[in-house]
Amino acid sequence: MKILITGNMGYIGPVLTAHLRATMPSAYLIGYDSGFFGHCLTGAAQLPERLLNEQYFGDVRDLPDELIKRVDAVVELAAVSNDPMGVRFEQVTSDINFKAAASIAARAAAVGVSRVVFASSCSMYGFAEGGPRKETDPLNPLTAYAKSKVATEEALATMQHGETVATALRFSTACGMSDRLRLDLVLNDFVAGALASKEITVLSDGTPWRPLIEVRDMARAIEWALTRDSADAGNYVAVNVGANRWNYQVRDLAEAVAKAVPGTQVSINTSAPPDKRSYRVDFSLYEQIAPDHQPQVSLEQAIQGLKQGMERMGFRDPNFRGSQFMRLKVLERHMEDGRLNSDLHWVAT
Question: Are 215 and 48 in contact (CB under 8 A)?
Answer without folding.
Answer: no
